[in-house]
Amino acid sequence: TPRYVRVNETLERHRQxxxxxxxxxxxxxPNEIIGPSMEGGPEQRGGDGRGGxxxxxxxxxxxxxxxxxxxxxxxxxxxxxxxxxxxxxxxxSKTPARTLCPEDHMWRPCLVIGVVAxxxxxxxxITLFEVKLxxxxxxxxxxxxxxxFDAESPEKFAARVAxxxxxxxxx
Length: 171
Prior knowledge:
Blueprint: H1 3-16, H2 19-25, H3 30-34, H4 54-61, H5 77-82, E1 95-100, E2 107-121, E3 124-133, E4 140-143, E5 147-149, H6 154-170
Antiparallel strand pairs: 1-2, 1-5, 2-3, 3-4
């Protein structure tokens, strides 16, 4: 079997894998990836409003990426972008992936088209990827653990996310 046929079969198998189910099997809810809303009262942010464990509430507010183990990463952010498809609509490069949508907690096909950094604390930056969802003209920003590139194993990606979520739960 020619290499390109095997690669295409692998990519198609990755695209067909249900990421929501993989996360559920590992005990990870979409909210733990997306993060709690900063709006509303403490009960909506993970606290009970009675003082509870402030450290646990703070850890729950931190992006799960802070607890990520980047040894799982195949490529750096810019390399993911450079591995994308050739330009045809004004974007220099587009890398096929799926992203977790906060509106409905579904993993949706997207094209990753850029990278930016977001400062979380004075000492920490989180990489944000710019994504274009199918059928949506607006470019959105997503954190790394909300994006599973078509070229990466969904099983390894789910294990990576689950490990980061577990470290955040223990913080």
